[in-house]
Amino acid sequence: MANPDPVLVHDWHPLAKAEDVAGGRQVAARLLGEDLVLWSTGGRFHAWRDLCVHRGAKLSLGKVKDGCLQCPYHGWTYDESGMCVLIPAHPGQKPPPRARITAFQCREAYGWIWACLSETPNELPVFPEWEADDASKFAMGPYEMDASGPRIIENFLDLAHLPVVHEGILGIESRAEIARYSVEKRADGVYATDIVVWQPDPDGSGMPAAAHYTYRVIRPLAAYLSKQAGTSVFTMMILATPIDEARSKAWIVFSMKGAKATSQQLIDWTERVFLQDKPVVQSQRPELLPLDLQAELHLNCDRTSIAYRQWLNELGVGFGTS
Amino acid sequence: MIDDPVLLNDWHVVARASELAAATARPARLLGVDLVVWRTDGAIQVWDDLCVHRGAKLSAGRVRDGCLQCPYHGWTYSVSGECVRMPAHPSQKPPARAHTNVHPVKVAYDLVWTCLGEPSGDIPPFPEWDDPSYRNIPSGPYAFRALGPRVIENFLDVGHFPFVHAGYLGDPAHTEIDDYEAEITPSGVIARDIPIWQPDPDGTGRSAKVAYTYEALKPLTARFTKSQGEQRFSMIDIVTPVDGNLSLAWAIMAMNYSFDTPAEKIRAFQDEVTAQDLPIVESQRPEMLPLDLQSELHLRSDRTAIAYRKWLRQLGLKYGTS
Questions:
Q1: pLDDT value at position A207?
Q2: Averaged over A277-297, what is the pLDDT?
């Protein structure tokens, strides 16, 4: 690992859609600067270092065969435990014990394949509404971003950009003022409550309403939002998978209760909002989020960001920050 | 510039002579140094691609009256590399510092060779080129986003044929490699008479059991001859170390049979085989070939690679190795 982050290595990060790996396929992924191969057999998913120990070729260019992963170069064949079980150039020779691949923790949730680079993973970020029967639920992404994970999360927590970047949807420029709200930094994350923002189209149905926001930063690269507007309740969790320090994949799950919009309208609305943010976030410099509060300017409306940066600093998150 | 005395004092290919028309200039790059390759009516010149006045690339200029003229202010350099005219001050004698670095040039096998340092040896032999019993078919250059030693080691590798070149140079039903010997000689590495069954050893579409003899002639040049009875198919692979990311492989195939098979067909076959190798070689990690034999795994079938790595270590090659 180029720069193993002492905090993020213990977190779970989504890497691929399960449907792209299921059915005995393999795909390349990258997490915290580490090349990984994700593959499946018999409904079980694996996340391994993407490197054959023989000549260093990428296993993700190989294939899944008879429940094993086969290297594309000389056909070295690894079983689900990561042990090499066949060296085709010498079929009668027992592969040496060193001929094995490092396996990482791997699991499926929200239709995605997640991996953790540590043996002692933290809890998976929970999106409680995923289990609710009375809400529509959607998983979206990945969205490739040339931006650091903390910049993406901080944008998700940001209020003052709503009337500017999302003009006509999440705000209007003539009502850009942000009223005072509450922020609390606890050991398990950052909480921002009592936020009220007037929005022209808070839920994709096209009806204006005063929206009441509650934010919670769950993990350094996972944040949750609950928004009540009129009769609708919209919740969302965003995850930024750190590929490299300044490259990420963003994933979204959201739920909607009581909205008049159709499922397709909700998906289109969410994607439209996200894609409005993307070029702005990718343009931010420095790319790595400055945790020193003197480095950028902070206003009253930025108190969630301030708490987020302080919390990252206390945790010791180094990857994607400066 | 890549600081490797072994390669700096060796000859490398920077162009194909027959593709360099009279009175034209083109850019090339060798060991991280930008070069201009140009031809007057007859002789070929290889210089640093830099006008000393304002640093413009001479390769973007033009050849006029046997001189090379900078595209920016028209400074004009004679074949000795001296500036002979500064058009803004036509009567002023150009200062002594107004010259470019001139490198030695050889033309062999229709390739233009140069050396950035003091040439310590000759260009590698390929006797088939002047042997009337052979036809010669040049191909490439093939651009690899990989470093030269990985490219050459792949050229010397027999174990990958059934996997990377199935249906061409190998067959998944014949993966086992018979024992063979490889040795380091005063002129390089040689591995003799390796028997391989091939579905289509030469692009003619006829399967055969062939015997390969491989030689590493230079750190970045290797050749083989594969024999079936009296038939000989030889190939030389000459790798130009462009910079720290890119290599160019120039190939020549020579055959003493099948004179009626069109050269385009043989060349298309080699293009296809190289396209199969390319993604695998580009995927290899570490990018630098590990000369410590403990860091990757080696089998009996890897004896040529083992000898090649030991030889590179003896030579003290720094570029592309770790």
A1: 87
A2: 95
